């Protein structure tokens, strides 16, 4: 399906938006070997400019896609996943920016809908994410930065990073798992 309206679409196409999943070519494999293969109609991925505008667009498109997948706006799960997307894409822009390079965003849900995975890939190799500790000054609530991965750690069931397979850079991923009985 060709989208002429978006220069951000990966290679001019949106991968995985077809009603004939057996005819799709080039669907990206899950970045982690332990990640299950998502349903093609539950995968959304695009490249965005490495700017605050690109991060904002990724967040908004993720919110729309989650709603289309049956996770309505305003629910705890929707808000948590969108927050994870916002933090990971903002980090890719702020800490993973390389001039002239975009970041790649991927959102996928398992066929049963119990796990939603967010992946953000940038091309910067020397700035790797670290497991966050509570930032100093967090008790007084006056710090405005440095809490992104703390929020991701709180809302995601698990998160990590791995080197980018097809070139320099890294992929930071997070998974949101619905509580037992909390989804369908």
UniProtKB/TrEMBL annotation:
Residues 48-173 form the Histidine kinase/HSP90-like ATPase domain. Keywords: Kinase, Serine/threonine-protein kinase, Transferase. PANTHER family: ANTI-SIGMA-F FACTOR RSBW (PTHR35526:SF3), ANTI-SIGMA-F FACTOR RSBW-RELATED (PTHR35526). It comes from the Bacteria. GO terms for molecular function: protein serine/threonine kinase activity. CDD domains: HATPase_RsbW-like. SUPFAM superfamilies: ATPase domain of HSP90 chaperone/DNA topoisomerase II/histidine kinase. It comes from Streptomyces nodosus. InterPro entries: Anti-sigma-factor_SerPK, HATPase_C_sf, HATPase_dom. It holds the Pfam family HATPase_c_2. This is Serine/threonine protein kinase. Residues 123-144 are annotated as: Disordered.
């Amino acid at each position: 399906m060709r989208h002429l309206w978006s220069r951000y679409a990966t290679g001019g196409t949106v991968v995985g938006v077809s009603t004939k999943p057996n005819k799709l070519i080039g669907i990206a494999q899950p970045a982690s070997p332990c990640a299950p293969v998502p349903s093609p109609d539950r995968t959304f991925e695009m490249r965005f400019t490495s700017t605050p505008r690109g991060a904002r667009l990724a967040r908004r498109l993720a919110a729309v896609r989650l709603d289309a997948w049956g996770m309505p706006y305003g629910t705890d799960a929707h808000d948590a996943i969108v927050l994870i997307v916002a933090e990971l894409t903002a980090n890719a822009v702020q800490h993973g920016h390389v001039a002239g390079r975009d970041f790649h965003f991927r959102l996928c849900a398992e066929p049963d809908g119990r796990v939603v995975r967010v992946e953000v890939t940038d091309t910067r190799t020397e700035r790797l994410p670290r497991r966050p500790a509570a930032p100093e000054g967090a008790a007084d609530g006056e710090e405005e930065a440095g809490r992104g991965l703390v929020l991701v750690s709180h809302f995601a069931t698990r998160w990590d990073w791995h080197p980018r397979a097809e070139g320099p850079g890294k992929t930071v991923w997070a998974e949101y798992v619905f509580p037992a009985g909390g989804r369908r």
